[in-house]
Amino acid sequence: MDGQTVVRAQAGDHAAFTAVMDAAMARFMAVAQRILRDRGLAEDAVQQAWLDIWRDLPTLRDPLRFEAWSYRVLVHACYAEARRAHRWSPNLALDAIPEPAVPDGSGMVADRDQLEYGFRRLPVEQRAVVVLHHYLGLPLASVAEVLGVPEGTVRSRLHVGMTRLRAALAADTRPDVTVAMTGAVR
Question: How many CB atoms lie within 10 A of CB 122?
């Protein structure tokens, strides 16, 4: 993002803010949808993030840090939306998430449905780290900056999240013991 456009948006230039939004909207939606696993929740989180960004943009000290700062605002909006959804609606309807323009290699890990099922089992904090690191390609130090947590916490969340994801995928692919032993399904 061009620093001059951010500076103009900080000064209240609506056209500059619209340009900033247009440049980031698709990526914001993709990140929020991957973290929340629900299109409606993602739309709400993105909308709340843009409201927070508009309100707090004048306080941003370094316009060149806008991208990291705006992702932090988005992730916090996703956390809030996940808490709200968990409190009110334990059974979320899931929409298909569009594939990234560049193949991400996840097809080698497992079938897309198994991967989605395993990913939904992760807590939102671990999903956020996995999305920021693996989907956006941010280094762990940048993920820590975006989330406002120590790099060690990011490493721990990534390790535990990936371990849980692998365990969920492995559990889904193991044959049912009763079928193997008796030949019948209970």
Answer: 21
Q: Which residues make Cβ contacts (< 8 Å) with residue 56, sequence separation at least 6?
A: 73
**DSSP code of 13?**
-
Tell me the C-alpha distance between 45 and 51, whole Å. 10
Rounded CA gap, 98 and 27, in Å?
12
Distance CA 78, CA 90 (A): 16
The separation between the first and the last C-alpha atoms of the chain, rounded to the nearest angstrom, is 57
Radius of gyration from C-alpha coordinates of the chain: 19
What is the tens place of the pLDDT at every residue in 27-76? 999 999 999 999 999 999 999 999 999 999 999 999 999 999 999 999 99
> Where in the sequence is the domain holding 30, given as residue range(s)?
1-90
> Is residue 112 within a helix (H) or strand (E), and if so which, with residue range?
helix 112-120
> Is 8 a domain residue?
yes
The reported pTM is: 0.72
- Per DSSP, the three-state class of 67 is helix
- DSSP string of 94-160, one letter each residue: -PPPPPPSS--SHHHHS-HHHHHHHHHTS-HHHHHHHIIIIIS---HHHHHHHHTS-HHHHHHHHHH
Q: Which amino acid is at 28?
A: F
CATH of the domain at 167: 1.10.10.10
